[in-house]
Amino acid sequence: MMMTRFASLAVFAVFILSACSSPDQSSNGAATPTAAQEKITLKLAHGWPKGYPIFGESVDDFKALVESLSDGKLEIKVDSTNKHKSAFGIFDFVKSGQYDIGQTASYYYGGKDPDTLFFSSMPFSMTTQEQTAWFYEGGGLELANQVYAKHNIEVMLGGNTGMQMGGWFRKEINSIDDLKGLKMRIPGFGGKVIAGVGAVPTNIPAGELYQALERGTIDALEWVAPGLDLRMGFHKVAPYYYTGWHEPGTELMYFFNTDTMEKLPNWAKSVLRNAARLTAYNMTTTTFDANTENWAAISSQFPDVQIKQFPAEVIAALKESNQKLIDQEIARSPIAKEILESRAAYLEKARSWTKIGEQSYLESIAQ
Ligand code: CA
């Protein structure tokens, strides 16, 4: 199945590449790959265990696509956390040039630069489709690159998880008091939001999540959604599975070391950027598909899972905490203000259409 999908992607990508590279070929013969040209090898680090479903497989797709599009002249060597041992080290690896390319989530690096928190997903914010349009058409990717340029990094979208679930809890959440003192793995802005209502957020790499929940290091966790969550076994120790609010469409990112990119010929840059864009599209589709498959099987294969929604009182308190933090961020720095106002303006415009488009469709045919 992987091979079939990749083959069709590659065929599609060849058309894009030939369209993108023809100006280079006509204006600068030196940029055209030739048989005599040396192979370029780039090192890539991703933040997941080796072979990790979807996120890790997506990097394997990227590698295969880059090597195929470049006719083998561009080689990608991929290291997982099994090799580099640092799930949240991707930012530093690429910034320093220890690795040329990284694949990770931007919001893991709020401690390095608080402005990176806004480029994965934000609580109560845009869905996957809305946010992807913001990135590509609404100035979002330019803003991300403005933030990352300070760190010697160029970014491209890395694929979206779609709507994420609110997480796995050992106990039911019936009121805001049930969140007070609750130790929960939840990264990014969502973590700050639950801290605002008295919970204790933490971040833990994918490979250590089950153990942390099983041993009681944490009381609850959020990871992604059924497509990735069910195979992790969380339901065995935390049967309450809440619907989402904090990550309505989380985008992964490719990081490219700026010095590496500047040294590459134009055709190679074009291959990397177009392969990233295609791989991101592919991962978004793969995740949606995995969610539909696992959701369809949840009641037969995981009968103990109890699907819950947070009470209105809890959602209202989380929204209030979120807004307080947004106001603080807007006051903190001009670039944070610019990003958050850009997100808010795009959300308003996009949501208005989503409501009259998809939401009206779903509501009207359900009557
Ligand atoms: Ca998540």
Description:
The chain has 2 domains: 2-21 and 38-161 and 250-289, D-Maltodextrin-Binding Protein, domain 2 (3-Layer(aba) Sandwich); 164-246 and 304-332, 3-Layer(aba) Sandwich (D-Maltodextrin-Binding Protein, domain 2). The chain has helices at 2-27, 55-69, 81-84, 90-96, 128-137, 140-149, 188-195, 209-214, 226-229, 258-263, 266-301, 312-332, 334-365, and strands at residues 40-46, 74-79, 101-104, 153-160, 167-169, 183-185, 200-202, 220-221, 240-242, 251-257, 306-308. Residues 1-33 have low confidence and may be disordered. The chain is globular, with a radius of gyration of 21 Å. The chain has 367 residues and is an alpha/beta fold. Helix content is 50%, strand content 13%. The two termini are 37 Å apart. It contains 13 helices and 11 strands. Strand 6 (183-185), helix 7 (188-195) and strand 7 (200-202) form a beta-alpha-beta unit. A 6-stranded mixed β-sheet has the order 7-6-8-5-9-11. It has a 5-stranded mixed β-sheet with strand order 2-1-3-10-4, with helices on both faces. Bound molecules: calcium ion. The site of calcium ion has 6 residues, from loops.
